[in-house]
């Protein structure tokens, strides 16, 4: 029997790893801090890229199932000036390489593809330590422990597993999203709905951007991006939704009202999403029996790649373990040798995008579309 794998974190990366291992007959358990699959919102839309995310799901044997999740028409894009002028527009003709799905639906697909009992819910990790005789001991918040001969940290930015490998800690990247939702948009928020169109919207400006997606159920999901230090946001009382909304909206004075409506007409309180990064080129020395993937390995500012890269990590690690039966260290070495240069390049690209004042070409590249002038 192949060595069982203990995975910390039931996000897309950890679940992709578990599924690829299952396809190859390698047993795995996943320990997740959340008490259930529906304990919290799983975020909005994801574009699943043909060069990484889709390949990961192919390795997981879920390509046909992915097609059933795709929201038709959502690859359409619009790039607007701050005055509402359309700078660039392209419809979704079904040929694009980045089909859009709801993150929650994709996570549920992966969960449903695993044997019952694979995921252990409500297992928040308190600490992890290396055992003298080899392997690692994971202590959970409730005081229970498990011993893991092969431990994988798929537990995100604030990973409890990563400190075994690296002393690197995430640092604030200088930008933050303020997240809003507008429901029943075509009837209740028609101006904002018209601005967003059938897919995705970007309105870029120096230090201030508005991104939005049309999700399922006639919902608009907006990410209002601001480049400010953390103490700037700390001075805003986000417990007072109306006051926080008004304060954020002031930063967009003079913008077209159909764009600022994505802030002022939110049907939910604004939610702060600060961005953190690990050092570009983050890597570690090989430590027997443990590795990390996704944000635990290469956290960077959002640029549309994070979830796809996490799934790619999970798939490649699962394939490496299947390709080296009985030799876990060879598998982990092969995985990390491919991971390090790939993740360094992706993090460097994300940092370069974040450091530059966005231009129309930057916005087009963000969406990964061919040029078509409106």
UniProtKB/TrEMBL annotation:
Gene Ontology CC terms, in alphabetical order:
cytoplasm
Q: What is this protein called?
A: Flavin-dependent monooxygenase
EC number from the UniProt entry: 1.14.13.-
Per the similarity annotation, which family is this? Belongs to the aromatic-ring hydroxylase family. TetX subfamily.
Q: What is its main location?
A: cytoplasm
Source organism, top-level taxon: Bacteria
Q: Where does FAD bind?
A: 47, 103, 295
Q: What is the lineage of its organism?
A: Bacteria, Bacillati, Actinomycetota, Actinomycetes, Pseudonocardiales
Q: Which PANTHER family match?
A: FAD DEPENDENT OXIDOREDUCTASE DOMAIN-CONTAINING PROTEIN, MONOOXYGENASE ASQM-RELATED
Q: Which reaction does it catalyse?
A: a tetracycline + NADPH + O2 + H(+) = an 11a-hydroxytetracycline + NADP(+) + H2O
Question: A GO molecular-function term, please?
Answer: FAD binding
Query: What's its job?
Result: An FAD-requiring monooxygenase active on some tetracycline antibiotic derivatives, which leads to their inactivation. Hydroxylates carbon 11a of tetracycline and some analogs.
Q: Where in the cell is it found?
A: Cytoplasm
Q: Which residues bind NADPH?
A: 40
User: What is the enzyme's main class?
Assistant: oxidoreductase
Fill in the subunit field for this protein.
Monomer.
Q: Which InterPro entries match?
A: FAD-bd, FAD/NAD-bd_sf, TetX_monooxygenase
User: What's the domain remark here?
Assistant: Consists of an N-terminal FAD-binding domain with a Rossman fold and a C-terminal substrate-binding domain.
Cofactors that this protein relies on = FAD
One GO BP annotation is: response to antibiotic
Q: Keywords on this record?
A: Cytoplasm, FAD, Flavoprotein, Monooxygenase, NADP, Nucleotide-binding, Oxidoreductase
Limits of the FAD-binding domain: 3-341
